[in-house]
Specification:
Elements (H helix, E strand, L loop, with lengths): L3 H14 L3 E5 L25 H4 L2 H6 L1 H17 L4 H11 L3 E6 L5 H4 L5 E3 L2 E8 L5 E3 H9 L14 E5 L8 H13 L2 E5 L10 H8 L3 E5 L12 E3 L3 H17 L1
Parallel strand pairs: 1-2, 1-7, 2-3, 7-8, 8-9
Antiparallel strand pairs: 4-5, 4-6
Helix pairs in contact: 1-10, 5-10, 8-9
The protein binds nicotinamide-adenine-dinucleotide and zinc ion.
Zinc ion binds next to loops.
Length: about 260
């Protein structure tokens, strides 16, 4: 088994040898910014709440008030969060001209706050609210202000439909334009780097498989093992913030040498 240094070295070289890199991020990307993920042992949100009760679209429509408390707790953490060393390292890689863009499952907007370009938010964003009837999109403050005043069924100011955070709940389809953009990026990429995803949530977990089938190489940085570890050129079971900045620094040094 190779050492961490060997793996850092190997992933740096893979990046140097690649022209069209795509990064796929999951909730593990943002844990170092203070936002809990879903599936980490002990700290993951699924240890505390039942997803069937709180994260399906049916449960929200049936009882918005019950869901809103948990959402406000997570939302408060998200609105206060700042991009971490990992998000910043991705922006640095993009400035080197090698990164096509980022496909993210995260709804926190931290890639954009770190000034990464071409970010596809496959699961939407909690920085916006959406009317379930007329589909208009509002800043999330529109919804939060109503909830803070005690409204348990926050509603659209235009058509009075129920507002929801503009993030994908379990049981909702992903937006087709975003899926098309992701498909294009996957078709173009020669290296896909997965950062902080259990690769258990579909359809996003198909992307690494699709990239592999189209001839791209795969690299993974994730604390826990994933089902695709055996298919990757490099797998690093460490924190993103402790490894990715070192990898990108090494790439920068070699490119400028
Ligand atoms: N920040 C967010 O926007 C946020 C937070 C919670 C959940 N979600 C949503 O939850 C769903 C969960 O799927 P998922 O695959 O994204 O997350 P997940 O919770 O299923 O898996 C996260 C993975 O990240 C790893 N991890 C945690 N911290 C890490 C770190 N610092 N460095 C490296 N690895 C780390 C864990 O070992 C775990 O395997 C997604 O659909 C996402 O939309 C988003
Ligand atoms: Zn409306």
């Amino acid at each position: 088994m190779s050492s961490l240094e060997d793996k850092i070295e190997k992933l740096s070289q893979l990046i140097i040898d690649s022209k069209n890199i795509v990064i796929l991020t999951g909730a593990g990307m943002s844990t170092e910014s203070g936002i809990p993920d879903f599936r980490s042992p002990d700290t993951g949100l699924w240890n505390k709440v039942d997803p069937e009760k709180y994260a399906t679209i049916h449960s929200y429509v049936a009882n918005p008030g019950r869901n809103l408390k948990m959402m406000l707790d997570l939302g408060t953490k998200i609105f206060r969060a700042k991009p971490n060393k990992g998000h910043k390292a991705i922006t640095k890689l993009q400035k080197m001209g090698k990164l096509i863009g980022v496909l993210t499952q995260n709804v926190d907007g931290l890639h954009q706050k770190a000034r990464t370009q071409n970010v596809v938010e496959l699961h939407g964003t909690v920085n916006e609210a959406k009317c379930m009837r007329c589909k208009r999109v509002f800043p999330i403050t529109e919804m939060i202000n109503q909830v803070m005043k005690g409204a348990m069924n926050p509603s659209c100011g235009i058509c009075f439909g129920l507002l929801k955070p503009n993030a994908i709940f379990f049981g909702e389809p992903l937006e087709s334009e975003k899926l098309m953009k992701a498909d294009e990026m996957i078709a173009k990429c020669d290296l896909l780097i997965v950062l902080g995803s259990s690769l258990l949530v579909y359809p996003v977990a198909f992307y690494p498989r699709k990239a592999l089938s189209l001839g791209a190489k795969l690299a993974i940085i994730n604390i826990q093992e994933t089902d695709l570890d055996d298919d990757a050129e490099v797998v690093i079971h460490k924190k993103i913030g402790d490894t990715l900045p070192k990898i990108i620094e090494l790439v920068e040094k070699r490119i400028n040498a």
